[in-house]
Amino acid sequence: MSLWKKTALELSNLIKSKEIKPSEVVQSFIERKRQVEPKIQAYVTDLEEFAIQMAKKLDEEITKLEKIPDLFGIPIAIKDNISTKGIRTTCSSKMLENFVPIYDATVIERLKEQGYVITGKTNLDEFAMGSSTENSAFFTTKNPWDLERVPGGSSGGSAAIVAAAAVPLSLGSDTGGSIRQPAAFCGIVGLKPTYGRVSRYGLVAFASSLDQIGPFSRTVEDAALIMNVIAGKDNRDSTSKDVPVPNYLEEIKKDVKGLKIGLPKEFFTDDLDPQIKDTVLNAVKQLEKEGMSVEEISLPHAKYAIETYYIIAPAEASSNLARFDGVRYGYRTKDYSDLEEMYSKTRNEGFGSEVKRRIMIGTYVLSSGYYDAYYLKAQKVRTLIYQDYVKAFEKVDVIISPTTPDVAFKIGEKSSDPIQMYLSDIFTVSANIATVPAISIPCGFKDNLPVGMQITGKPFDEATILRVAYRYQNIYRFYEKIPME
Ligand code: GLN
Fold it and tell me: How far apart are CA 259 and CA 400, in angstroms?
């Protein structure tokens, strides 16, 4: 079997037993990448040459190591809103087109300590605002299952490159669904950890109270493998929490017997596409056969989640994005006569239309006349949504729903209608609002396109959702089917 078809865990074991060298692994993935990348366009910055050099160094280093780390020699792609020292980090924005950070994000530092190999920086919707990568200032990434369709977003590049098996693992960020929705559209595993589980230090902020970094992989084991490395308290992120990190690779093997699944009645309505509904409920039945029990639950405030999210996220974004003013770093307009004009021309030319829309909504809902009516109200509803989850988790261990209302849509289909685009986050935003962890795994196909199932867990209980996901993967071996073969 070609090395590129293997999972990160399989490769890790082969490297540790010295059956293969990091350079052989990297070479195999590069060959696969050359075949698929011209069609899917997942990378903003392809680091092929850098990866080859790095792997060569690791070939030498391994001979001197007593203990070989789990991710040693494993190729990993990084979403281009995660800071990489010395490597351009654009956020797919003209504003940061030539920005080279002087420091690494904490997740990158941790991966470096392992001896991982960075393969490139992946495309996203500008500043992670969007659901399709069509808001990238550079180009749109294509879905490997159907090149006329979007890979989802905002982490579309990270999802597409893993789905096409041109890299076994990647990192994305999820503010309202940007890991889970593209994972669903691309037929892979995507995990949004609990808020505070993974350090946000070095993640370019979109909405700081919602953002989390998390992994994409073809298997649940691989998600567990990288979570073992990136999870945990970081003193440089005051919102990261000091909650013990279990060994996820051990946790996933535990039995699921006796665990309770909650199905929120608000998510399984008659409006839901019948095929999506059937596919997800069929997967739930399989889990029932494994000894899990199922009951209906209610998340009564979930119906306000989209509205709440699209007030809080833009409010925080408008504040976070104030730093891009042409003074400190990033793009600066060429012609201006005074400071005021420099600011406004820089921001007008540097930001795309979706980012501007969010800044306008955000400043509006925060302005003194409207703050109480919108922002403050949204914060109150946020608490209600959170309390719904607390109540639900008194009864059940995990909550299952579809990840998205439908499969991947066509490029251009929703780009002129922001509301339609926002509605594709209807099942994912609640987890960010409530800060809880959620994973999307493939559970079938509709019209030859992958369908995602979302499993949501209690705060800091990534272990249980990974465990349920792993059990399902043993029934439906979704990782065996690779597009563009
Ligand atoms: N699609 C959502 C948005 O546009 C979520 C984005 C994200 O999670 N980064 O805001």
Answer: 12
**Whose CA is closest to 454, among 180, 269, 155?**
180
Residue minimizing CA distance to atom 4 of ligand 1: 130
End-to-end CA distance of the chain: 13
Give pTM, 2 decimals. Answer: 0.98
Question: What's the pLDDT tens digit per position in 88-142?
Answer: 999 999 999 999 999 999 999 999 999 999 999 999 999 999 999 999 999 999 9
The ligand 1 atom at the shortest distance from the C-alpha of residue 354 is 4
For 171, the domain range is: 3-259+396-480
Q: Which of 158, 178, 217, 415 is catalytic?
A: 178
- For the stretch 451-473, pLDDT in tens is 999 999 999 999 999 999 999 99
CA distance 407 to 402: 10
Residue 265 designated active-site:
no
Catalytic residue list contains 241: no
Q: How many domains does the chain have?
A: 1
Establish whether 28 is a catalytic residue.
no
* CATH number where 423 lies: 3.90.1300.10
